[in-house]
UniProtKB/TrEMBL annotation:
A Pfam family per the record: Amidase
Family: Belongs to the amidase family.
UniProt-listed PANTHER family: GLUTAMYL-TRNA(GLN) AMIDOTRANSFERASE SUBUNIT A, MITOCHONDRIAL, TRANSAMIDASE
Protein's name according to its UniProt entry: Amidase
Organism: Streptosporangium pseudovulgare
Domain spans labelled Amidase: 53-212
UniProt superkingdom: Bacteria
Family matches, as SUPFAM superfamilies: Amidase signature (AS) enzymes
């Protein structure tokens, strides 16, 4: 049967890549073994994602499985319920084959993890897989799953997509339910689909959101803003778009990081600093750096963020989508010092998160718009015309 063949392919890929620390198996039985025992009769009309295998980042609850958040402080008990975003996928026929490894607490750009092992990049062995959804991206690159779910606060879906050569969508906050998903900084946290093609990503998006997106024949009539000397700008011009340069508002990063730090401290107040010894050194440094942010500084940051958003929206009136690199610099190397590279690596994705805009990472190409359908249409059009996934620098 089709779903049995899909499970067998995933199981073989898991075996081949066992040393890559791609999955977190916190329970007594591997997820794929549990799946293989389930009876799934073929329905008369197979649903949208019938026999599509997927993984979910281990920030996301699945009933009967443990949610570790990439930490040793969580996951002692099985989740009682399944996050609605996962329920939608399973109702559409998708097969969950594993919980994906990640940067501890979804806060980092390399997916190094002292508790569950550093995720390795199966496509580019000399590179880190990106973070924090590095296990999800690595699972796709390794053939363990056809698609996956990650979370993205400042680039955690898009940076791994760039490092592992896959596709990841960051939707706007609130479009996909965050129920059953562990938080980092709730103002910016989102769940996003990842896949090996824009077409597959759009198909998963349709299940998650109910929004069908079809590829246009061209981008004629669209205005595309180009930032950071995007190497693919000419491709969008060839597709019929009018191309013009724009500048990203990097001044938004100061209030953004103030808000992220303050919210992360509150997210962890029950366990930090009381259980500081159980945190990795990198996350401890980030939480310590965010200490002391009070309500006045926080309120000023929120006001400043809102003002920069409004100003950028006015400046880009008439621009339909923006294109730019995903990574702010070279992809992080395997074994690098995460603290030394995270600011540059996440420089561009963090600006986009701060602006509250949806973004599609096609490897090291990022398409940003006002609605998810806008970025998916542009990506689908480029893909249909032979546009490849750009490799990491």
């Amino acid at each position: 049967m089709e779903h049995e063949a899909a499970i067998a392919r995933s199981a073989e890929a898991i075996r081949l890549h066992r040393g890559h620390n791609i999955l977190i198996e916190a329970g007594a039985e591997p997820v794929i073994d549990r799946l293989a025992r389930r009876d799934r009769p073929v329905p008369a009309t197979p649903p949208e994602l019938w026999a599509w295998t997927f993984v979910v980042k281990d920030m996301i609850d699945v009933a009967g499985l443990r949610t570790t958040r990439g930490s040793v402080l969580y996951g002692s008990e099985e989740a009682l319920t399944t996050a609605p975003c996962v329920e939608l996928l399973e109702r559409a026929g998708a097969l969950l084959v594993g919980k994906a490894n990640q940067h501890e607490f979804a806060w980092g750009v390399t997916s190094e993890n002292p508790h569950w092992g550093d995720v390795r990049n199966p496509r580019h062995e000399h590179l880190a897989p990106g973070g924090s959804s590095g296990g999800t991206a690595a699972a796709l690159a390794a053939g363990i799953a056809r698609f996956g779910l990650g979370t993205d606060t400042g680039g955690s879906v898009r940076i791994p997509a760039a490092c592992c050569g896959v596709v990841g969508l960051r939707p706007r906050a609130g479009v996909i339910s965050s129920e059953g998903v562990a938080p980092l900084a709730p103002m910016f946290d989102v769940v996003g689909p990842m896949a090996t093609s824009v077409a597959d990503c759009a198909r998963v998006w349709r299940v998650l959101s109910g929004e069908a997106v079809e590829p246009p024949r061209s981008l004629s009539g669209l205005v595309v803003g180009v930032a950071e000397g995007c190497a693919q700008a000419g491709e969008f011009a060839d597709l019929g778009a009018e191309v013009r340069e724009i500048a990203l508002p990097y001044g938004i990063l100061s209030p953004y990081w103030t808000i992220v730090g303050a919210q992360a401290r509150r997210t962890h107040e029950a366990t930090y600093p009381a259980n500081a010894a159980s945190y990795s050194a990198g996350v401890r440094r980030k939480l310590d750096d965010a200490g002391g942010i009070g309500h006045r500084e926080y309120r000023r940051a929120v006001e400043e963020l809102s003002a920069v958003r409004a100003g950028f929206s006015a400046e880009t009136a008439g621009v339909d989508v923006l294109v730019m690199p995903t990574l702010g610099g070279p992809a992080p190397r395997a074994g690098c010092d995460e603290a030394a590279v995270r600011g540059e690596v996440g420089r561009i994705t963090s600006v986009v998160s701060a602006l509250g805009l949806p973004a599609l990472a096609i490897g090291d190409l990022q398409v940003v718009g006002r609605r998810e359908a806008d970025v998916l249409r542009a990506g689908l059009c480029r893909e249909a015309r032979g546009g490849a996934i750009p490799a990491p620098r």
